[in-house]
Amino acid sequence: MQCLACGAEMQLREVVLADIPTMPGFERHTFRCSACPQVARRLVICRAKMPVVDPLVPSAVSEAPTTNLQTGQQAAGVLPNAVEKLHSTQAALEDQDVTDWLPTVEKLSMALKERAVAARASAWAKTVEKLRSRQMALKERAPTGDASVTIRVCDHRDKHQGLMRNAGSQGA
Length: 172
Fold this sequence. Notes:
- This protein is an alpha+beta fold.
- It contains 3 helices and 3 strands; from the N terminus they run βββααα.
- The chain has helices spanning 75-95, 102-141, 147-171, and strands at residues 10-17, 26-33, 39-45.
- A 3-stranded antiparallel β-sheet has the order 1-2-3, with no helix packed on it.
- A hairpin with an 8-residue loop joins strand 1 and strand 2.
- The longest helix is centred in the C-terminal third of the chain and has 40 residues, at 102-141.
- It is elongated.
- The protein starts with 9 loop residues before the first strand and ends with a helix.
């Protein structure tokens, strides 16, 4: 993944299970840029960690008999049992209701869009606050008083210095 700010490579820094109880199998990945302080967070679907069948339904775990591969002993008894087990598992899966992911995806997408809007609003607020602080700093550095007063004071000094020169030349 590349940094959107500077284009450098981002490194995966943290992986946390998402705290969405109705949707298992999601992780939050946190990436940090190697060149700048940019941080990106992504919600990732981890299908490998999602249960294939309903976790509430107990599954029968049986020990498979060991087979001597060189002699092929017990191979004839294991193959029909494996095929039978496969067919029974397929039938059980076909009987289960198919989960409709559309409402879940829509809820998640709306939540992500709302977070993006909030993040943009927060970024704009920070930008405006930074601009205002810079404007205040410029106002504090600016000379106090009216500009015309400053010009009048300079003109008065010039006239005063001119009078002093004239008086010095007349007295000599």
